[in-house]
């Protein structure tokens, strides 16, 4: 049954002219970065509703930076897992055109993917909200809160709740989604808006939707065509292996 689904997913991907992936925090859990939903870890200590909003940051940057530095320690040590690596390989093979990620951890790029739209930004750089000067996070790790040379507090280049999505990321994602013939939705609960409109935009173009998640989501019974219940690090490499076999030259 599982092998049959893997074969079906491989057929969809090899038969598609434009394949995208939409990824979320779940794809990085096997790299040691907790998602929002896991019972343990960072987010049980820091409620995202309290810490991850732009108004919380503006009201008390030092408090929010305590959480950000703790997160930075986890994220900066994380390495890409088998799911990131499999996606990198899929792109190199010419079967994955772009990844739209909600993650801010840089692990897709570290796993070999080049076409990555970071819908919610990237935590490895910080910017001054006042003068716009940008710094590498690693240069500022001994400061809490980190400050610009103009003395204003720096903000990581991630999108907090309540902030606008960078226009270019939004435009490109929607454009790609409306031409997609296949969409992999991996490790996301798809509840954060507006990125969670991507599956329905792709479906509007009759794209086949392959979902990988440890648990069912609101997409599973509505838009998803093939659902893999399990971990991304186990399932993604199996799909890539099946594609390789299909594409192996005949003896
Ligand atoms: P989420 O926490 O709402 O959902 C994660 C989903 O992944 C869940 O449905 C869970 O069942 C699933 N999952 C967990 N482990 C998995 C695994 N090994 N394989 C497959 N699926 C697995 O995350 P979200 O939908 O990305 O939304 C949360 C928001 O928080 C996003 O905006 C994201 O940017 C941000 N966030 C990012 C990171 C990161 O960069 N790594 C970490 C935490 C939160």
Distance between the termini: 28 Å
Per CATH, the class of the largest domain reads Alpha Beta
- The total number of structural domains is 2
Query: How much beta, percentage-wise?
Result: 15-25%
Discrete helix count: 10
Per DSSP E runs of 2 or more residues, the count of β-strands stands at 9
Low-confidence stretches: none
Q: Give a quick account of the main beta sheet: strands, pairing sense, barrel closure.
A: 6 strands, parallel
Q: What small ligands are held by the chains?
A: nicotinamide-adenine-dinucleotide
Radius of gyration: 19 Å
Brief summary:
The protein is of the alpha/beta class and 251 residues long.
Task: Fill in the keyword field for this structure.
10 helices; Rossmann fold; 251 residues; alpha/beta; elongated; 3-stranded antiparallel sheet; 2 domains; SIR2/SIRT2 'Small Domain'
Question: What layout of secondary structure does this protein have?
Answer:
Elements: H1 2-14, E1 19-23, H2 42-45, H3 48-51, H4 54-59, H5 61-77, H6 82-92, E2 98-101, H7 107-110, E3 116-118, E4 121-128, E5 134-136, E6 154-158, H8 167-177, E7 182-186, H9 198-204, E8 208-213, E9 226-229, H10 232-247
Parallel strand pairs: 1-2, 1-7, 2-3, 7-8, 8-9
Antiparallel strand pairs: 4-5, 4-6
Helix pairs in contact: 1-10, 6-10, 8-9
Bound molecules: nicotinamide-adenine-dinucleotide (NAD).
Describe this structure in words.
The structure is a single chain. The protein has 251 residues and is an alpha/beta fold. The chain has 2 domains: 1-33 and 81-120 and 165-251, TPP-binding domain (Rossmann fold), CATH 3.40.50; 35-77 and 124-158, SIR2/SIRT2 'Small Domain', CATH 3.30.1600. Helix content is 37%, strand content 17%. It contains 10 helices and 9 strands. It has helices at 2-14, 42-45, 48-51, 54-59, 61-77, 82-92, 107-110, 167-177, 198-204, 232-247, and strands at residues 19-23, 98-101, 116-118, 121-128, 134-136, 154-158, 182-186, 208-213, 226-229. The strands form 2 sheets. A 6-stranded parallel β-sheet has the order 3-2-1-7-8-9, with helices on both faces. A 3-stranded antiparallel β-sheet has the order 5-4-6, covered by helices on one side. Strand 2, helix 7 (107-110) and strand 3 (116-118) form a beta-alpha-beta unit. The two termini are 28 Å apart. The mean pLDDT is 94. Nicotinamide-adenine-dinucleotide binds next to strand 8.
């Amino acid at each position: 049954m599982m092998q049959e689904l893997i074969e079906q997913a491989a057929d969809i991907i090899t038969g598609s002219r434009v394949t995208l992936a939409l990824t979320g925090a779940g794809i990085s859990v096997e790299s040691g970065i907790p998602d929002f939903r896991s019972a343990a870890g960072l987010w049980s200590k820091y409620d995202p509703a309290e810490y991850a909003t732009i108004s919380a940051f503006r009201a008390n940057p030092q408090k929010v930076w305590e959480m950000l530095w703790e997160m930075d320690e986890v994220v900066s040590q994380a390495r890409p897992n088998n799911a990131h690596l499999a996606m990198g390989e899929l792109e190199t093979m010419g079967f994955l055109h772009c990844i739209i990620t909600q993650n801010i951890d840089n692990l897709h790029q570290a796993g070999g993917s080049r076409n990555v739209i970071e819908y919610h930004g990237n935590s490895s750089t910080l910017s001054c909200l006042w003068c716009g000067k940008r710094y590498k996070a690693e240069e500022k790790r001994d400061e809490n809160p980190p400050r610009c040379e103009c003395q204003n507090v720096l903000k990581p280049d991630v999108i907090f709740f309540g902030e606008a999505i960078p226009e270019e990321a939004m435009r490109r994602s929607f454009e790609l989604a409306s031409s997609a013939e296949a969409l992999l939705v991996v490790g996301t609960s798809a509840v954060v808006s507006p990125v969670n409109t991507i599956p329905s935009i792709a479906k509007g173009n009759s794209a086949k939707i392959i979902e990988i998640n440890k648990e069912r989501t609101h997409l599973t019974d509505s838009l998803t065509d093939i659902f893999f219940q399990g971990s991304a690090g186990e399932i993604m490499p199996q799909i890539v292996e099946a594609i390789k076999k299909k594409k192996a030259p005949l003896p």
